[in-house]
């Protein structure tokens, strides 16, 4: 089997700051890669470079063996902010790019939008505008919008960071369902339990370098690199402190 996504010696520099340093990663079809690491380690930058949103200074990003180009639809990205059009219904938000970018006839685009909304559990709410949806539902519309474009790889950058804790579960459940159905994805998240249960592999970044890329059992089960262990220890202490507070 060939990798869907190949990241080869990817570098990103801004001025003399090295944000990503020769990152290489092959992602096989159906893999769910959890990307973790300290704040500022380069997680968002990695996803943005893969999606073609940030310019790269060196290396390659290949999707199914071809250089990915921004806007070719091979890679889809879901952000922390949902970025929905407030004046459009959920269905129209999902259908817009299909009509405008893909030139799909309105009837087909609407049917595809309905199917994508159903996949994220919002089949009944397509006629609502964002203001009439919860934050979790709005993020699910954003996921449906990306799914409708049928990308080969789906990137999630902190998809629940803007949500109240009680609304994160529904979004994480949708991502879990997509992963279980074989969608190839990379997920940046600070929710370690979620990353541990979702990922086929976990990539730990620090200072723009991949410190460890291994199955979650290895990374979270005490087999981690020293830097990873320190990070997880601090994370667990913070979670325990938050629970006690
Ligand atoms: N356009 C830019 N110009 C200069 N520095 C940048 C730029 N974009 C990102 N950086 C720096 O690159 C580093 C990595 O940033 P990035 O947002 O990718 O980290 P992150 O791991 O996603 O952090 P967080 O977990 O806090 O979201 C940070 O030190 C950041 O300040």
Describe this structure in words.
With 245 residues, the protein is α/β, with parallel strands linked by helices. Helix 2 crosses helix 3 and helix 2 (90-100) packs parallel to helix 4. The model has no long low-confidence stretch (mean pLDDT 93). It has a domain at 1-74 and 187-245: Rossmann fold. The longest helix is centred in the last third of the chain and has 19 residues, at 226-244. Helices cover 38% and strands 24% of the residues. The strands form 2 sheets. It has a 6-stranded mixed sheet, sandwiched between helices. It has a 4-stranded antiparallel sheet with strand order 2-1-4-5, covered by helices on one side. It is built from 8 helices and 10 strands. Bound molecules: adenosine-5'-triphosphate (ATP). Adenosine-5'-triphosphate (ATP) binds at residues 14, 17, 19, 37, 39-45.
Helix and strand element order: EEEHEEEHHHEHEHEEHH
Give the name of the CATH superfamily of the domain at 1-74 and 187-245: P-loop containing nucleotide triphosphate hydrolases
Count of DSSP strands: 10
**Helical amount:** 25-40%
In the predicted model, the low-confidence regions spanning at least 5 consecutive residues are: none
Q: How are the strands ordered across the major sheet?
A: 6-7-8-3-9-10
Largest sheet: 6 strands, mixed
* Cα distance spanning the termini: 49 Å
* Top-tier CATH class of the domain at 1-74 and 187-245: Alpha Beta
Which word captures the global form?
A: globular
The small molecules bound here are: adenosine-5'-triphosphate
Gyration radius, rounded: 18 Å
Strand percent estimate: 15-25%
Count of DSSP H/I helices: 8
Q: Indicate the mean pLDDT.
A: 93
- What is the name of the CATH architecture of the domain at 1-74 and 187-245? 3-Layer(aba) Sandwich
Structural class by sheet pairing and helices: alpha/beta
GO molecular function: ABC-type amino acid transporter activity; ATP binding; ATP hydrolysis activity
Pfam families: ABC_tran
Membrane topology: Peripheral membrane protein
InterPro entries: AAA+_ATPase (IPR003593), ABC_ATPase_HisP-typ (IPR030679), ABC_transporter-like_ATP-bd (IPR003439), ABC_transporter-like_CS (IPR017871), MetN_ABC_transporter-like (IPR050086), P-loop_NTPase (IPR027417)
């Amino acid at each position: 089997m060939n990798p869907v996504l190949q990241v080869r010696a990817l570098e990103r520099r801004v001025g003399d700051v090295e944000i990503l340093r020769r990152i290489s990663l092959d992602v096989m079809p159906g893999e769910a890669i959890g990307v973790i690491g300290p704040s500022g380690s380069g997680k968002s930058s990695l996803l943005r470079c893969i999606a073609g949103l940030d310019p790269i200074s060196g290396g390659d990003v290949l999707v199914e063996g071809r250089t990915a180009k921004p806007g070719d639809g091979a890679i889809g990205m879901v952000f922390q902010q949902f970025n929905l059009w407030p004046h459009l219904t959920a269905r129209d938000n999902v259908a817009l790019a299909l009509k405008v970018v893909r030139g799909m006839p309105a009837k087909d685009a609407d049917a595809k939008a309905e199917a994508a909304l159903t996949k994220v559990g919002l089949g009944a709410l397509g006629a609502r505008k964002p203001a009439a949806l919860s934050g979790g539902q709005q993020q699910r519309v954003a996921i449906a919008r990306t799914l409708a474009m049928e990308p080969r790889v789906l990137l999630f950058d902190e998809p629940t960071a803007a949500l109240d804790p009680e609304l994160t579960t529904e979004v994480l459940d949708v991502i879990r369902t997509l992963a279980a159905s074989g969608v190839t994805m990379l997920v940046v998240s600070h929710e370690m339990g979620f990353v541990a249960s979702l990922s086929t592999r976990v990539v730990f970044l620090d200072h723009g370098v991949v410190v460890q890329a291994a199955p979650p059992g290895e990374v979270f089960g005490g087999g981690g690199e020293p830097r990873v262990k320190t990070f997880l220890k601090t994370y667990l202490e913070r979670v325990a402190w938050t629970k006690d507070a």
